[in-house]
Amino acid sequence: MGDLPFRAPAASSYAEDVDRLFFVLVGLTVVFTTLVGGTLLFLAVRYRRGNRVDRSRPSSHNTLLELGWTLPPLFLALGVFFWSAHIFTKAYAVPDNAKEIFVIGKQWMWHLQHSNGIRENNELHIPVGEPVKLTMISQDVIHAFYVPEFRLQRQVEPGQYSSFYFTPTKVGRYHMYCNMYCGTQHALMGGWVYVMSKADYQKWVASGGSQPTATGGAKSETGALTLAQRGAALYEKYQCGSCHSDEAVQRRRGPSLVGLYGKMRQLADGRKVKADDGYLRNVLYYPSEYPLAGWSVGMPSYKGTMSEEEVLAVNAYVKSLTPGAVPAAPAGSTTEPPAANTRETEGGNQDPNAPAANTPNQQWRYMYGGEQ
């Protein structure tokens, strides 16, 4: 019992805040349980049947007493609410310098993709003291990414990206779990997060992440290719340029993709949506649900053709297509990279209140943990 810790180590920038809130809630629970329970016990003993006490003038109302048991708990509850909301919202205020890592949950493993091209299975290597953003999606059913030492958990749903960020504060190895029952081998879906010193992390990156420190690590199958470079190769493989190259745009075969990410899109049915990660993913799988205003010709669905991992790579390439930027090309490629369109994105608008892109599959996902 001497080796059993009172709590898991606090290893992220949120952990101590969460722990303080937790212990305050435990303390309030103990205080009010004792107060209410003690008062109840006192009254039950004092006024039990047979006791000689004055029952001739029972009181039905006492304003001071009622305010005393109503206002203090109300203000305490409001204080806890704003405190917890502050901690919660911090996890979604992602700083600009956060290192983005893409996570795909699948029965029964975690696949992690770094923007620099390194891929891992059931392992995550990150540097200490640097903010990390996880953008996650499920390939099949609902999972939950959970690392106790970071005090952070996020559901990973099929068909919808979810994300949060954290800053690891202690070098070490921490267990990551799937904290949502996801099938017969749910208990085996886990792995390790390795928080490394910055020097060790740079060495690990320089080696291509090809030297796992525990069973379950996967060597990079793409060498030095970044995520955008892999996306460029897939962009060519699926002949996306046949509709989105500069020439194809001029011939009205499809809209330009340059500067698309983050723009607002005007759809033919009057909706306005933001071209965020969810939009880029859903428009590949469900193009008929996002008819772009001014374009009568639609695009084919890649549902069942592109995997979630390939979608992440293609979208990383699309996000790299900014006006004046040189598009990514696979390392060692002897062919020209896909042409970067120079025209502005068609169908854009500047409505800041445009919602994120969701599909009619949304309710199905919530109810059944999968997509239609």
Task: Explain what the structure shows.
There is one protein chain. The protein is α+β, with helices and mostly antiparallel strands and 372 residues long. It has 2 domains: 204 residues, Sandwich (Immunoglobulin-like); 131 residues, Cytochrome Bc1 Complex, Chain D, domain 2 (Orthogonal Bundle), CATH 1.10.760. Helix content is 32%, strand content 18%. It is built from 9 helices and 13 strands. It has a 5-stranded mixed sheet with strand order 3-2-1-5-8, covered by helices on one side. Helix 1 packs antiparallel against helix 2, helix 4 crosses helix 8 and helix 7 packs across helix 8. It is elongated and about 100 Å long. It starts with 14 loop residues before the first helix and ends with a helix.
Q: Tell how many strands the DSSP assignment holds.
A: 13
User: Biggest sheet, strands in spatial order?
Assistant: 3-2-1-5-8
The largest sheet is: 5 strands, mixed
Predict the CATH topology of the largest domain: Immunoglobulin-like
Going by CATH, the homologous superfamily of the largest domain would be: Cupredoxins -  blue copper proteins
- What proportion strand? 15-25%
Rg value = 27 Å
Give the fraction of residues assigned to helices. Answer: 25-40%
State the distance separating the first and last CA atoms.
49 Å
Question: Judging by the overall fold, what is the CATH architecture of the largest domain?
Answer: Sandwich
Low-confidence segments: 211-222, 340-370
Count of domain modules: 2
Order of helices and strands: HHEEEEEEEEEEHHHHEEHHEH
Overall mean pLDDT = 79
Tell me the structural class.
alpha+beta
Number of helices: 9
Shape: elongated
- Which class of the largest domain in CATH terms? Mainly Beta
